[in-house]
Design a protein that fits this description.
Helix content: 40-55%
Structural class: alpha+beta
Oligomer: single chain
Strand order of the largest sheet: 3-2-1-4-5
Number of strands: 5
Largest sheet: 5 strands, antiparallel
Radius of gyration: 20 Å
Distance between the termini: 23 Å
Order of helices and strands: EEHHEEHHHE
Shape: elongated
Strand content: 25-35%
Length: 138
């Protein structure tokens, strides 16, 4: 499954890298997740993203396709995994025999460790999960 967005090539940064202005008339207007997305939250009606492609010129109207599986995985990592780590830390504290307060503290510590790990691998995750396919619209 994928989400299609229309855009215009604004700048050619390198042989395969382009800066594209997103036109919100495409996928963003109908996307249910637009209020959580950085593109959907912007006040103006257009946004710029960097994408890879071939044989495009400045001014070309393009269709950008993003896999929605990356959005689902990212949502899981941001919303579900912190709960799992907190509960896991709590039960680790219970297994060790700590008091209720220390169990909760252990849950918060494990949650903090997860957030630090997520912070340090954020750029790599962004490159892995959010890939765009760009095609010229005729």
């Amino acid at each position: 499954m994928s989400e299609k967005i229309k855009g215009i090539v604004v700048l050619k940064k390198s042989e395969r890298t382009y800066l594209v202005k997103i036109l919100k008339e495409g996928g963003c207007a109908s996307c249910a997740l637009s209020k959580f997305c950085s593109l959907g939250k912007s006040e103006n009606s257009e946004n710029l993203i960097e994408v890879s492609g071939e044989n495009l010129n400045v001014g070309d109207l393009v269709s950008i396709e993003e896999r929605t599986s990356g959005i689902v995985i990212a949502s899981f990592l941001i919303f579900i995994m912190p709960i799992v780590f907190f509960i896991g830390g709590y039960y680790i504290g219970k297994y060790v025999g700590l008091s209720e307060l220390l169990r909760t503290s252990c849950g918060f510590v494990l949650l903090g460790v997860y957030m630090l790990i997520l912070h340090f691998i954020d750029r790599q995750l962004k490159e892995i999960l959010f890939s765009f396919t760009i095609k010229r619209v005729l």
